[in-house]
Amino acid sequence: MGSVMSGAPERKVALITGASSGIGRAFSEEYARRGIDIVIVARKEPPLRELAERLESAHAVEVTVLSDDLADPETPDRLFQALAKQGKLVTHLVNNAGFGVPGFLCEVDWLRHRACLEVMTAAPVRLCHLFAPAMKKQKSGTIINVSSLSALLPPHAGGTLYYPVKSFLYQFSLALRAEMRSEGVHVTALCPGFTETNFQNAAGGTVESVAVPKWLWSNSKDVAKEAIHAVEANKAVCIPGFFNRSIATAFKLMPGSIGRWIVRG
Ligand SMILES: NC(=O)c1ccc[n+]([C@@H]2O[C@H](COP(=O)([O-])OP(=O)(O)OC[C@H]3O[C@@H](n4cnc5c(N)ncnc54)[C@H](OP(=O)(O)O)[C@@H]3O)[C@@H](O)[C@H]2O)c1
């Protein structure tokens, strides 16, 4: 981290949301491997406890388990207060929790849409709002917002909410980065493509994933590692995988009408 962490407190602490599986679990493993204490958040407590036990004995780090539901608007404040009580200062924040919402807007239950908005827009923003001031004060810290390659593709029917939500998180991340530019705090938007996790199962399988060849899938360990390198290097955006980067560039360069036509097909 070099100069980024020069004013940092002695013990670094990474808070990772959605750590009970997939990319969040991989982030937790990678930070613990680097000797950084971690705070892991998700709804399911047993996988968090199992992860905590394993990482504490493997890496001699302190792991704090906070199982909570980020669809509840009060959760970010509850997490902040719990950590303040323990005197923990978050130096690395990973806003990773999320899930897919396949289906047309009117056919999906409103509570699912509302949870999607809460977990992937309001919660990450509030967590930044709560934890970034101390990072600013320390003139050091990192924030990774887990968006998606979807954020860089034209929206399409059937992903009516997920694509715009991930676009919001992507834009928010870039704006926050600009705000933090002179504050010593690094902010990166992570835009993974198809990654082998529980995501597809949790979403009930998506139309796109059925046709995606095996070689196109990334593994969550590589994604987390690449994202941490990117935020350390103060990169605005991290798109893991050459193919994913090529797709993003191609859609950026082509006229919007052609992009929408391709995605519709
Ligand atoms: N896998 C992909 O192909 C892919 C591609 C692009 C972007 N992403 C993004 O990557 C992030 C991680 O997803 P993943 O692929 O690792 O999927 P995953 O294996 O299903 O993990 C999702 C994590 O989010 C947590 N979560 C979901 N709803 C939550 C809630 N209401 N409150 C707290 N935690 C909640 C889950 O824990 P609990 O169920 O225990 O709460 C789980 O730990 C997501 O933001 C996703 O949109 C994934």
Outline:
By secondary structure, the chain is an alpha/beta fold.
In words, what does this structure look like?
With 265 residues, the protein is of the alpha/beta class. The protein has a single domain (7-264), classed as NAD(P)-binding Rossmann-like Domain (Rossmann fold), CATH 3.40.50. 48% of the residues lie in helices and 14% in strands. The protein has ten helices and nine strands. It has helices at 22-33, 45-59, 75-85, 110-138, 162-180, 199-202, 207-210, 220-232, 242-253, 256-264; strands at residues 13-17, 37-42, 63-67, 92-95, 142-146, 186-190, 195-196, 218-219, 237-238. The strands form two sheets. It has a seven-stranded parallel β-sheet with strand order 3-2-1-4-5-6-9, sandwiched between helices. The longest helix is centred in the middle third of the chain and has 29 residues, at 110-138. It is globular and about 50 Å long. It starts with 12 loop residues before the first strand and ends with a helix. Mean pLDDT is 93; it is low at 1-6. The chain binds NADP nicotinamide-adenine-dinucleotide phosphate. The site of NADP nicotinamide-adenine-dinucleotide phosphate has 28 residues, from helix 1, helix 4 and helix 6.
